[in-house]
Amino acid sequence: MKLSPAFLATAFLAFTSSAVAFPEYLARGFNIYPSSAATDTPLQAAFRKKVAEVKAGGDVFERRANTTRRNENEEYPRTIFSLLNPEAFDYNERDQYIDLTSDQHKFIAPGPRDIRGPCPGLNLLANHNYLPRNGVTTVAQAIDAINRVFGVEVELSTALSVYAAVFNGNVLDTTWSIGGPYTPTGIAGGVLDLAGGAEPQGISAHNVYEGDASIVREDYYQPGANNDNVHLNIQLFKELLELGGNDTTVGKDVYTSDLMLKHKSIRWEQSVQRNPLFYNSPFGGLIVTTAAERFVAEFAANNTAGPDGKNFIYLDEPNLLAFFGVTKHADGTLEYKPGQERLLPSWHRRPLAAQFGLGDIVLTLLNAAKTNPHLLSIGGNAGKVNTFTGVDVGDLTGGLYNTQTLLADPAALSCYLYQGFESALPSVLGNLYKVVDDALSLLNKNYNPVWHKAATANGNPCKSYQANLEKQSAKYPGSKVGNK
Ligand SMILES: *[C@@H]1O[C@H](CO)[C@@H](O)[C@H](O)[C@H]1NC(C)=O
Ligand SMILES: *[C@@H]1O[C@H](CO)[C@@H](O)[C@H](O)[C@H]1NC(C)=O
Ligand SMILES: *[C@@H]1O[C@H](CO)[C@@H](O)[C@H](O)[C@H]1NC(C)=O
């Protein structure tokens, strides 16, 4: 698979002197994050600006008074835009085109040996051969695909992809699977340093990347779910359509970020009420499942020209159905066939400049918590439904933060997330690997610096704290890692 021009351009911007860094990045010394770069990327600059505004009492997301530039009859106006707002840029047909029809990139359903998993976005990238059709990717291929097709900024796609390789994949050849277990055959020829000689589990493993209260998958330990956290649940999907008023209008922005975050809150409460072993894990729960709702609104959305030639981003029912692999028959019945996730042939990506980054994730969490403060909790049910208790933020951080301080400052929230993980990593990795050095070095180079930059935005001190997440998690009966 070749690396795309869009990716190369972004990677080039990201490196101040990229010439030496690039070839190296496919090898073990992989280090894409410009740790020495003094200058902010446009997204980092936008995040700093937003941090200052929120600290001064401003809204996390500005409410738009005037949406007349958007669709006529807009009943569900999108008020939540990414830091680099796609509607601030001119629509550019050629730049925003993605090949979805050539022999190389047309939709092909996975064969029996191809791996697919819980994330519709990754599944469809494999179905369109932007990720390898077999469902096993390298870190580099995933960064390229997510950046090229969905417009995710390189530093964020790097952090997400590296995390998958370290916790669900193989750090020696940087491969990971978008679903279940696999045998690595990459650069290192299947050499593994996972403890116990285990195969890498892929991102389907529960409570690592994949978490409870996800968009339209049931919880792994939920009674009746049969440990199936991978396949779409059609009833949950119908409820999502209902939240959108069953609106079938083509071209209408029904599934906005606003609506999807409301949906996240509903799903969270459902899990508390239905799953005695509900557990909102720090990464897979708190960060990933919340961000995932936002990802749908941002990445499944089609883009077109508004009346004034500016980009108009919208997610209507046909694009939503395709993204989730659901077919609507003529009589209105819905059918989900696993592995059918796709982008419709005429779909267009967001503007090249409107990249989506880590700061957007932090603001998404903040906004979700303003809708429902529970959404910021790490914690779970105590073995019965409706017994949720969260880890106390004050306890977790040695009194450094409480929920109120996190809600008032995006940099503080970034620091909380960053420090929580950094302090937990060595012990978690110690359980996973015989030798932790390679995994730790991959994270130190490509995961931690991204968070650190957000955590110290606007001179935020970001003092370290010893979160001891493992011990805190052990209190919750549903916190065990699951892979069938
Ligand atoms: C909203 O914007 C449109 C076009 O920019 C303008 O014509 C209209 O007067 C504005 N309406 C309000 C209420 O500000
Ligand atoms: C949406 O459609 C479902 C059937 O799939 C129906 O039960 C429900 O009442 C409808 N809701 C709205 C708001 O139209
Ligand atoms: C997406 O938008 C383009 C215009 O950019 C339009 O031509 C196309 O029909 C739309 N496709 C879908 C699947 O909504």
Descriptive tags:
3-stranded antiparallel β-sheet; binds 2-acetamido-2-deoxy-beta-D-glucopyranose; 484 residues; Chloroperoxidase
Structure explained in plain terms:
GO terms for molecular function: metal ion binding; peroxidase activity. Belongs to the chloroperoxidase family. Its cofactor is heme b. Pfam families: Peroxidase_2 (PF01328). There is one protein chain. This protein has helices spanning 5-14, 18-24, 42-55, 120-127, 139-150, 154-168, 234-243, 257-274, 282-300, 317-324, 358-371, 393-396, 403-408, 410-432, 437-446, 448-455, 469-474; strands spanning 136-138, 169-170, 175-177, 279-280, 302-305, 311-314, 326-328, 334-336, 379-380, 389-390. It has 484 residues and is mostly helical. It has one domain: Chloroperoxidase. The strands form 4 sheets. The protein has a 3-stranded antiparallel β-sheet. The longest helix has 23 residues, at 410-432. The model is unreliable at 5-28 and 187-191 (pLDDT under 50). Bound molecules: 2-acetamido-2-deoxy-beta-D-glucopyranose (NAG) (3 copies). The site of one 2-acetamido-2-deoxy-beta-D-glucopyranose has 8 residues, from strand 5.
Number of domains: 1
CATH superfamily label:
Chloroperoxidase-like
Strand order of the largest sheet: 1-3-2
Shape: globular
Signal peptide: 1-21
Protein name: Heme haloperoxidase family profile domain-containing protein
Pfam families: Peroxidase_2
InterPro entries: Chloroperoxidase, Chloroperoxidase-like_sf
